[in-house]
Amino acid sequence: MLIIIDLLIVYSFTVFTSQHPIRSDPVIGCHVNMENESFYNRFICAIVQPLRLHWNFRDNLNYINARRAEIGVSKHYDFRERANTLFLTDSFFGFEVPAAWPPIHQEIGPILPDTFPSLSSDLDLFLSSHARTMYIAHGTFLHTTPKNYAILLQSALELINRNILDGVIWATVTFNESELPLTINLSNGEIIPTSNLLNNLHPHVYITKYAPQFAILSHENTKLFLSHGGISSSHESIYTATPMLVLPIAFDQAGNAERLELAGMALKLSKFDLKVDDIISKVVRLLSEESFKSNAKRLQVLAKYNSKRKYRGADLIEIMLNMAKYDGIINENGELEVNIETLLRSWITPDSRMGFFRGNYLDVFGVAVIIALVLIISFVYGFCKAIMIAFRKLSFKSRNSQIFPKNKNE
């Protein structure tokens, strides 16, 4: 149990693990990549926001430390920067903003199952007969407002009426169907009863409570995925090279949406300003601009190779379980206990034990700067002194020539 408590598996919250100021997260009001931000924004996101985050999570940190004390595990002061915790992150470079990590931080994503549910006969028939299908799903735990659902539904119908799409599959999951308007009014004046859509009476719309998402995304006729941007959905869309239209709702979804957009395979929507015209224009771009599909295929290559790393993740856990036998200590009852201080000694970089100044060689660089300044000041002083001496000699000669002028006859 001690090992499992001290082994933290982090999924997609960069803000909780990032030790690199260049990486941040919309969770704290910043961007996932701070490369092109102003000095003010970089200062706020590197200094101010992490302090606010630490303050807001102080109660959680105290609770965790209390639980750790109950079982004899030492407390820690920053939930993001522990030297003796193994971080396994469900992400990969290409999707994630690249940065160097210490050995105890291992990226093992994208974590995807080996097998997935297959298409039902109805879904298979629907996809086979609709060559330009958009799949809509917004996860299993979060949902947006009824107004936004109505806008999404109207947008889907407008896209079909304008022949931009010829099919829409919607997995409603947490969708509260009773909160929808009774009818959907289209721009061409057509009025469609919502009940017809929910009962799958529309020939080009298929609504189901649950759907085999990976199988749908894998189908060649699924051209676009309108998603909330959860990490699993993002990885599945990348793995199947399906361009995304992302409507983030909470947690890591805004950060995932930014990463997907920066990678060039997605466009974002705002849950606070959702509009039919905006959805339609972005769907048109995703379908018509080849760059979105080519970028999705580029990320697909990375995802397929990196998805094998989940087995390394399992191996890392096995390593920790086995190393505990050799790095453990015997208590007064003769039982083997995990020694947290030495459990990861083979992976922990020396700088974490040297302190901030020594670990970052600030003392060495500080002395080097002082020596350089002393040398520069000495050189400047000597140079100025030489100039002054030369100037004085010239002045002395000039005065002597005026006081004792040479005889012209001599």
UniProtKB/TrEMBL annotation:
The keyword rRNA-binding does not apply. Gene3D superfamilies: Glycogen Phosphorylase B (3.40.50.2000). Residues 1-24 form the signal peptide. InterPro entries: UDP-glycosyltransferase (IPR050271), UDP_glucos_trans (IPR002213). It comes from the Eukaryota. One of its GO terms (molecular function) is UDP-glycosyltransferase activity. Keywords: Glycosyltransferase, Membrane, Signal, Transferase, Transmembrane, Transmembrane helix. The chain crosses the membrane at residues 364-391. The keyword Lipid biosynthesis does not apply. This is Glycosyltransferase Family 1 protein.
